[in-house]
Amino acid sequence: xxxxxxxxxxxxxxxxxxxxxxxxxxxxxxxxxxxxxxxxxxxxxxxxxxxxxxxxxxxxxxxxxxxxxxxxxxxxxxxxxxxxxxxxxxxxxxxxxxxxxxxxxxxxxxxxxxxxxxxxxxxxxxxxxxxxxxxxxxxxxxxxxxxxxxxxxxxxxxxxxxxxxxxxxxxxxxxxxxxxx
Length: 181
Description:
It is a single chain. It contains four helices and seven strands. The protein has 181 residues and is of the alpha/beta class.
């Protein structure tokens, strides 16, 4: 991405852009969560940005980061976006306070991010306000905790649940497989 888009972000959104940098070909903007949807809408719709392909949404847990450069918040939600027409990329980082793990959803802009937001919710516990179907996607509903948090216990024991087809209800073809084993 050209530096022009980062400059345009800073110019247009002012204090909502907490930081911008380009290092080793990686263009990054740190965005205040209150302005995330507005920034993403502009990145998608503005001709000079044209970010039409969301690549990923993830989260970083900085709870064990040691050193003077430690971030002010423990969790940072990270978006990777690409413009297919202009060929540039950007990374958006959104700091999230430990005591208020809420970020507005951007699924109204990029519907394809629904799965990724659900994954971040499932693995880290970040709630995406306004998400149309925010529920666990990788783990079962009774799962306790969020396993990608650094404070999740190494031996995180979970409640036992009945598996479909193993509680006496026959599963088509299951008997034949059990006999062969």
